Each structure stands twice: as structure tokens, then as C-alpha cells.
Amino acid sequence: MSLDDVVSRIHAAVPAQTRALVAIDGVGASGKTTLATALARHITTRPVLVLHVDDFFNVAAVRHARGRTSAEGFWLDAINTSALRSALDHLSAEGEGLYRAASIDHRSGRSWDPPRQAAAPRALVLVEGVFLHRDELVDYWDFSVWLDVAPDEAARRMVQRDGLDPDDPRLERYEGAQRLYVERARPRERASVVIDMTKPSAPRVVA
């Protein structure tokens, strides 16, 4: 599957004359950021902007309220869903286009209200990150992608990418949260397209 294939599917599904919201969802190290960056460079027929779910994380006190190793805590508390929904409301076709691109300052770990930015009237908004097919968010998307990777392969990539010890408890917390998400939100069923990313150099659409 090529970038042109993904772009064609997006263009066929989303409104052409208003802003459109596209979710790029998947487990950690499945290729979400890489795909969003590539699409943003590849699409030249309309303005494109990219939002990162990591920029809408809750502060540590909220994320870890159920315990630093709690999978349920990561699934339920990692994302400041209200802040992300506010940004999506403003970026939707019905919104006025003024949005905040983050709700947390990663350097200080504190909540943050950055200056509002203006999105172009026909902007294609790519939102990449985890848990985007959860009940509170699924109805926002004009098109959505689920990047499918086996849990053990995703864990291997995260260890390699982030320099983690294979026994780091954060890995089990994250894997457990993803299992809860898949069970409760069924992202494979809800996504517009499922792409098998077992081989990142040869992505494959899953029927």
C-alpha cells in the first residue's frame, strides 16, 4: 500500500470544501507519527495540519492517580479528553477554526493554554495518537485509520525506540491499557481502514 492509496481513500471520504478531521490511531510504535508526517508532506491539494494526542495528555497527578503501573489508569486517565474535544469542536466543519494545539507543557509537566491558532477553512486535520476510537471521540472523524501491530512486536519496537528495559513496568501498563482499549472500543471495527504494519516497509490493507 502506498501513500497515494491512503490519500485517495481520504480524499474520497472527507468533505472537500470544509475542514475535515482524520484520525490516525494505533498502539505505541505502530507508525502513527511517521504516517501523519508523511501524509502532511504528501498532500498538496489543500492545507494540512497535524495534532498530536501526546500534547493533550493530563498532568502526572491525574495520569497516575490510580497508580503508576495501572493499565486502567493509563486507558482512562492519560488523555485530557475534554481539552482534545474542545480543539476538535473548533476544528470541525461547523467550528470557527480557532483552536489550541496542546493542553500540557511537556517541559514543565504543567497544564497549559497556548495561544489559539487559526486553521484554514479547507484544512485537513490529521490527529495522531492513541485511543482515538474511544466512545468520546469516535464520532468526530470524517475518516480514520487503525495501524495494526501485534502487541509483542509493538513492545519490541518501543524498547528499541525509547531505550527501555524489556522488564520495565511501564511496558506492561501500556500493553494492558491497549488491551482494555481494543476490548472496549473495538478500533479495528470502527476504523475506516485497517493497515497491517507488521512490516513498516510494506504496509498492507486488511480486508
From TrEMBL:
Keyword Transferase: yes
The Phosphoribulokinase/uridine kinase domain, residue ranges: 22-162
A Pfam family hit: PRK
Leader sequence segment: none
GO molecular function: ATP binding; kinase activity
KW Membrane (keyword) present: no
Keyword annotations: Kinase, Transferase
The name this protein goes by in its record: Uridine kinase
Native source species: Cellulomonas flavigena (strain ATCC 482 / DSM 20109 / BCRC 11376 / JCM 18109 / NBRC 3775 / NCIMB 8073 / NRS 134)
Upper taxonomic lineage: Bacteria, Bacillati, Actinomycetota, Actinomycetes, Micrococcales
